[in-house]
Amino acid sequence: MSSTTINEKTERMVLPGWLVSILQVFLVAALPLVLLLGTARVLMMPPYIQWEYSRPLFPADPFGFTQADRLLYGPLALEYLFTEQGEEFLSEQSLSDGTPLYNERELSHMNDVKKVTQGLTRFGVSLIALYTIAVMLMAIPLQTRPGLYAALRSGSILTIALIIAGLIAATTAFDWLFAQFHGLFFEGTSWIFPTSDTLIRLFPEQFWVDAFVLMFGGVLIEAIIIGGLAWWKLRTSH
Question: What residue segments make up the domains of the chain, in order of their start?
Answer without folding.
Answer: 3-237
